Target: Ferric uptake regulation protein
Amino acid sequence: MLLVPDEFRDQLRAAHDDAWLSAVQVQAALRAAGLRPTRQRIALGRLLFGNRHRHVTAADLHGDALDAGSPLSLATVYNTLNQFADAGLLRRISINGERSYFDTDVGDHHHFYIDAEDRILNIPAGAVALDRLPLPPDGYEITKVDLVVHLTRVAERAARQLSKADPATSAVPPEIDPL
Model:
């Protein structure tokens, strides 16, 4: 992974306050991160870094690109997101080892994951306190801790528990009398 200078990250964060990044700004950002500014990377960079911090999947960004008139393949979008993450421009968040989200905020923070909505939210700064971490194995050091807290609505959990407790009643909608 390339180390992106702090001043560049600060410029990217400041650019999030602008309504839209210009192609020239994105080109400069890509070069600073050690990436060649291709047409595809510039188009995706403008979508990712132009407005606000966000959590996206490759499918989300692919849809945004198509809506913006950039006919890119889903594979190109996915590869570009991974290249941006490897260069330190994005933060990769893996959910259950099967789905990847990409976060435009590369600063230290943790996340909530809402299972039923397949959505990620930032946990407010200072809301998580870790007072003790395990010692790493010999020859290793801890460089980062990523915490994802999975959420389920209380009503959904209660409904699942009820259906597990009495499968006969869960198969019949409440408005229909089984007799």
